[in-house]
Amino acid sequence: MGGLLSYLISWVAPSRPAIKYDPTPDPTTGLTQREKQLIMETWALAGDRKTVKENGLEFFIQLFTAYPYMQNYFDLFKGKSISELRSSPKLKAHATSVMYAITSYVENVEDSENLVGLVQKIAVSHIGRGIKVDDFEKLKIVFLKFLTTYLGERCTPEIETAWTKLLTAHNAVYKMTEDEVKGKK
User: 178 with 129: CB under 8 angstroms?
Assistant: First the structure.
């Protein structure tokens, strides 16, 4: 009976062949085609227009809770309590712009050259404020924790690996840019 039922269902809803992804890692990011797809799929959830502001704010709350000294990079947030930060329209605005920057990374994950350019632009603006690659390494840790918590059971080791590779590539470009900027001084 089970075989007959499976046969009948296959006529109504034929199974789709599995998508075959090129397993060759991108030379710039180290991401495979499958990992790029996973990043885009998961960001469709976390970076969704309906939730991006709240998610960005929550991410920054987690960042400032884990690394309180990072609040001091922002004159507007120095000395503020977490409850004050939760209701700060300025933090919400900054958090939203950061989430949109991540959106631009995701939208360019298949265009490594443009992705590098976007990271360099962010790096130059942050290096000028005294923010080092070590701070972005800490940000990576918090972001991965935020993302895995947000995705819950949907988060797989494969998704974590993909995002880790993307953020590691980000920080490598940031470090190169940091070294270039220091070399010019």
Answer: no
Among 37, 112, 98, 115, residue whose Cα is nearest residue 62 = 98
The pTM for the full model equals 0.86
Neighbours of 53 (CB within 10 A): 14
Cβ–Cβ contacts within 10 Å for residue 175, how many? 16
Q: Cβ(100)–Cβ(53) under 8 Å? A: no
- How far CA 42 is from CA of 14, 151, 158, in Å, comes to 26, 8, 11
Percent of the chain with pLDDT over 90: 84
* CA distances to 45, 85, 90, 159 from 63, in Å: 20, 12, 16, 21
Give which of 13, 31, 160 is closest to 105, Cα–Cα. Answer: 31
CB of 52 within 8 A of CB of 100?
A: yes
**23: exposed, middle or buried (C-beta count within 10 Å: 0-12, 13-18, 19+)?**
exposed
- Residue 16 corresponds to which tokens in the numbers above? 């789709």
What's the full length of the chain, in residues? 185
At 160 the pLDDT is 97
What letter represents residue 15's amino acid? S
Summarize the confidence of residues 66-79 as an average pLDDT: 96
Distance of alpha carbon 165 from alpha carbon 141, whole angstroms: 12
